[in-house]
Automatic annotation (TrEMBL), chains A, B, C, D:
Protein name: GDSL-type esterase/lipase family protein
Residue stretches spanning the membrane: none
SUPFAM superfamilies (alphabetical): SGNH hydrolase
InterPro entries linked: Ester_Hydrolysis_Enzymes (IPR051532), SGNH_hydro (IPR013830), SGNH_hydro_sf (IPR036514)
Origin species: Niabella yanshanensis
Chain ranges of the SGNH hydrolase-type esterase domain: 25-206
């Protein structure tokens, strides 16, 4: 009898489902599209399954087109805190830079940092693990001649330093994209290698983002 | 004995101080300067004393230079909700328009409205009475030829319509400034009548703002 | 014999064709489109024929999309002086204002005036009669709330004052458009009354421009 | 007698002064300041004297603050063609890029190229030797994180390619500045190494420009 009970207990433990970690991808139109069938979020999910970790993670996209860091803050309570995630991958900054020139409605770095810092602190207080990403590209030319290269580098540098100083996992998308484009853009095109339109990701772009993000998420299982 | 008690009770009520209503002025550099010795906030206080209502109101400035509507939202919890005010006079919008051209970091109207609306709703939920102001001026020329006149009119119109629709007291500073400048700017100067630098208020500007705001605050005693 | 010669001389004079005055319309995309079948230039021609003055004028369009005042100066020798016109109607300024916000490549008023003045002087030296036009609209809202209204008014004011001071015929398109929109835009739409897209002219817009221009050209017969 | 005459003739030829080549430096505020006592033009002159070539060249500054390529074209007849120079060093492009963000009045590359090309062709027709310079810097950070680095690189690339294709001597100031800053800006400051304010040259900057320009001018003696 005792033996049977022990067996049952073992069985119970063995089959008890692991509580999946909820991962929110929090960002702009790239993340909004990233939740679509060919987007980076399903690709992260595939990489996860390939690694036999499907029971460990669930992935949720919370991207809205045109968002800048303060638009994330606007919906931070509802789309992050109220969702009770374990991990939040923040992929923001492109519109903060881009909209300066398209519509005069970007975000200066000091405010970019202030809003970002406030969200990171609120996540930490809520026991949520943040992951930070550097902004990828606005234009794919690989000779530092895209209009916003200087500003993107400036914001990316801030993110890298903030993440290092605060021990936050970093997905250095800008670095990954630059390396990829150095090798794979011999004609120095401004789009068509990782993006469809200089900013939004094509299949190769979504795959690269998924691979880089999965490297950062996987160890947190 | 009963008589004495009654007398005591009457005395108690008579001398019990009225609880002052706390009025927060929530805004940008104009409000930050408005809290200074020659600013509009001490002038509102003077108008209040003139009307023998010093016991009814206390006035607190919460203005920070460069603020746009989303910068107000950034510090809304700490500077408004946590302060437990009765009334909040929101005077914002100039930088949302102005920074579009100076640094590419203004706010488009749709987002301006979304952030404003969210704060108004949170105030109402907290039992706080909001008062809305239209943005005054960027340039004092009175023939509709200041660079941002069109955009300021566009944002002012939204504020007027929102206030009307939601039964929120309105201080139409833009209208007041325009009327004043029609009469008092015969040389069509771009500064020096109500502002020192096209935007920030001189003594006359602070007085005009104080008078208009006091008209809206006084009935809420 | 003498009588016959006299008759012949009279006949010669009577049938000698009047030398047509060559009128160049010099401008941006509005003028480029204005040379098309439904554009304002054929409509000026129709008004001219209606007034039985077809033998007095010929009309030539020299408009190129995106042109600012300095783009006119770039091709001034080839497209104006070398064409030996009698009259040049200059219709420029919208892109000088508009491109400030769309691509950061507009023209400040001081330089706008300098280039304009240089071309006017060169025309006068060459015996060419200039006609100046104020810029029409960027947005058709009639309550001074179009983004660039302030700046357009500022440039229009300069053109009016320059024309008055230098005795140059003026076609005040901005004034004509404003008057028309006050009466004919009750829903305060931003396009569709005189323009297709806030800037470029529909049929009604082309007709209004043609009528106003013809009023200025006709007396120069 | 014949002998004496021959001697006299020889003496005449020997002492006849070489006609100095007139070199115009044509540019913006950097060139305007470059004509001042500590500017790059007197420094070019000093380098010229050091090389015992004082009799071969004379140097004239034609720089005006705020100039973009089309402002050069505006005064091209008066300040270049009418001056009958032998050599013109064109140093332009910073404001074409910079003013996009400061005042919305920069120049897009296609027009930058069109105006530049027109002036080069007119110089060639007039027998004037042009020398082209790439724009130096807007910000001295050496990690590609200055706001306009991408755009400056884009314009510099166009100038390099145009000069190569048309066999025009090139002074690659941007390259020289970048190399210098890689070695001499260890703290990654945004000003103070070659500029006083991110753009305008200090003593070291003026010397570097003078050295690079002299290398291009000297062989044309």
């Amino acid at each position: 009898m005792k033996y049977l009970l022990t067996l049952a207990a073992i069985a119970l433990i063995a089959f008890q489902p692991v509580k999946k970690k909820k991962v929110i991808f929090f960002g702009d139109s790239i993340t909004q599209q990233g939740a679509g069938p060919n987007g980076y979020i399903p690709k992260v999910d595939s990489l996860c399954r390939q690694d036999k970790l499907a029971e460990n993670f669930e992935f949720v996209g919370k991207g809205i087109g045109g968002n800048r860091v303060y638009d994330l803050f606007y919906r931070f309570q509802e789309d992050v805190l109220d969702q009770k995630p374990d991990i939040v991958v923040v992929y923001i900054g492109i519109n903060d830079v881009w909209h300066k020139t398209t519509s005069g409605t970007g975000t200066e770095l000091s405010k970019f940092g202030a809003f970002y810092d406030k969200m990171i602190n609120k996540m930490k207080q809520a026991g949520i693990q943040p992951i930070m990403c550097t902004p990828s590209v606005i234009g794919e030319r690989n000779d530092d001649s895209n209009l916003q290269d200087g500003d993107l580098n400036f914001y990316a540098k801030w993110i890298r330093e903030y993440a290092a100083k605060n021990n936050i996992p970093l997905v250095d998308l800008r670095q990954s994209f630059m390396s990829y484009l150095d090798k794979n853009n011999p004609a120095n095109e401004e789009k068509g290698i990782l993006t469809t339109d200089r900013v939004h990701l094509n299949g190769a772009g979504n795959l690269l983002v998924a691979q880089e993000m999965w490297k950062a998420v996987k160890p947190l299982k």
